[in-house]
Amino acid sequence: MADEALFLLLHNEMVAGLYRAAEQGEGENGRCTTKLESMGFRVGQGLIERFTKDTARFKDELDIMKFICKDFWTTVFRKQIDNLRTNHQGIYVLQDNKFRLLTQMSAGKQYLEHAPKYLAFTCGLIRGGLSNLGIKSIVTAEVSSMPACK
């Protein structure tokens, strides 16, 4: 439980530090999201290497996505993805109804505009993991009500 609190604090400080630097003129706000996504990408690559070293090869994309939703997500966020949907044409929608990185923020709509910057690292995490498994992807996040995200 202590490692979860440390991860949440580290993540919050990464986001706050990058955006604070941007406000002081050391960078642009758009670049902050890109930096967070890049950090997540590298971490995702490393985690997938570690998690799959003793795993048999995956049969197809759907098996990879199931692994991401069950094992990968559980290891990182201490819970499975709540819902996985696909159109069977390469588009997957992962839904977490109580996303840990957003639960510390208010459930009110006033923080809804700040939610994307707290999801950039996670988008990179997923994209990096998929990249290491041989899937080139575009990962985006959507928040319509806090703390749920897709």
UniProtKB/TrEMBL annotation:
Q: Which domain of life is it from?
A: Eukaryota
Q: Where is the signal peptide?
A: none
Kindly list the places in or outside the cell where this protein is found, as annotated in its UniProt entry. Endoplasmic reticulum; Golgi apparatus, cis-Golgi network
Q: Which GO terms describe its cellular component?
A: cis-Golgi network; endoplasmic reticulum; trans-Golgi network; TRAPP complex
Protein name, UniProt field: Trafficking protein particle complex subunit 6B
Q: Which gene encodes it?
A: Trappc6b
Q: Would you identify the family this protein belongs to, as annotated?
A: Belongs to the TRAPP small subunits family. BET3 subfamily.
Mind giving the lineage of the organism this protein is from?
A: Eukaryota, Metazoa, Chordata, Craniata, Vertebrata
Q: Which PANTHER family match?
A: TRAFFICKING PROTEIN PARTICLE COMPLEX SUBUNIT 6B (PTHR12817:SF3)
Q: Where are the transmembrane segments?
A: none
Q: What is its main location?
A: endoplasmic reticulum
The entry's function note states: Component of a transport protein particle (TRAPP) complex that may function in specific stages of inter-organelle traffic. Specifically involved in the early development of neural circuitry, likely by controlling the frequency and amplitude of intracellular calcium transients implicated in the regulation of neuron differentiation and survival.
Q: Which organism is it from?
A: Haliaeetus albicilla (White-tailed sea-eagle)
